[in-house]
Amino acid sequence: MPDDIANARVENPDGEIPALIICEHASNHVPAELSDLGLSSDILATHIAWDPGALEVARGLAEMLNASLVHATVSRLVIDLNRDPSAADSIVTHGEHAPIPGNIALSSAERLRRVQHIYEPFHRSVKQKLDQRLDMKAVISVHSFTPILRGKTRPWHLGFIYDADDRLARHVTAALSKDPQLIVGLNEPYNVSHGVYHTLERHACRRGLAPLMIEIRNDLIRDRASQKAMARRLAPLLAKAVDAL
User: Fold this and answer.
1) Which domains, and CATH codes, for the chain?
2) Residue 66 backbone class (left: φ over 0; alpha: ψ -120 to 50; beta: rest)
3) Tens digit of pLDDT at every position of the chain (245 positions)
4) Closest CA to 139 of 204, 192, 70
5) For residue 152, what is the enclosing H or E element?
6) Counting C-beta atoms within 10 Å of the first and last residue's C-beta, which end of the chain has fewer, N or C?
7) Distance in angstroms (rounded) separating the CA atoms of residues 86 and 152
8) Which positions ≥6 away from 80 have C-beta within 8 Å?
9) Quick check: 9 and 57 in contact, CB under 8 A?
10) What are the C-alpha distances in Å from 200 to residues 46, 120, 139, 207?
């Protein structure tokens, strides 16, 4: 298994804004010793292995906001960083349409190895960045979602996920909802009951920091130009929301 540094990357470590950007599903990379988990490169390129486009949007936001970014470099199919390791879907055995051979009948030792070498380094990096800033106000997690899941169309262009603390979500959606051509969802296409809020609960909510999970429909951020455009659209709204905290 690659070393800790390879499994959690920090960019713009000296970012000035008191908000940390994170991207848990940034990569579809599978360590060589896991033999692609028995999956083809075509399957690993799909949304089941990562959040396509999310990392480049997160990088754009980090640059435009002058924020630090912590992101993963290993596929969520190896272990999902946004799930508690004890959760059943922390290491999935079946994707949307096919089994994940390399995850079936895992030994306890192999599960623990993935937790220690992939999950823990990422969360340690997030904690360290937050510990370094006594003035930190917010943690913003960037994701993307597929337009169709299990045959069901998902019409939202953007979704903002939150729990009890809606300070950032309400601020940003109020601004975006002024665009009549934009479909914005609150707690869509997921909500906290789906178990998708683990990282924010662990690092933001427990510290009293404002949390926000951003979900962007991945057909809207297929290339660098659209990824940059999305970051440019969101960055000023997030800057105002953080400043208002």
Assistant:
1) 4-243 (3.40.630.40)
2) left
3) 444 446 799 999 999 999 999 999 999 999 999 999 999 999 999 999 999 999 999 999 999 999 999 999 999 999 999 999 999 899 999 988 889 999 999 999 999 999 999 999 999 999 999 999 999 999 999 999 999 988 789 999 999 999 999 999 999 999 998 999 999 999 999 888 878 899 999 999 999 999 999 999 999 999 999 999 999 999 999 999 999 99
4) 204
5) strand 152-153
6) C
7) 29
8) 24, 25, 89, 90, 91, 92
9) no
10) 25, 15, 7, 10
For residue 106, which amino acid is it? L
Position of tokens 């999950």?
119
CB 217 within 8 A of CB 149: no
Look up residue 18 and give its two tokens. 């008191």
Beta carbons of 142 and 23 less than 8 angstroms apart: yes
DSSP 166-226: -HHHHHHHHHHTT-TT--EEET-S--GGGT--HHHHHHTGGGTPEEEEEEEEGGGSSSHHH
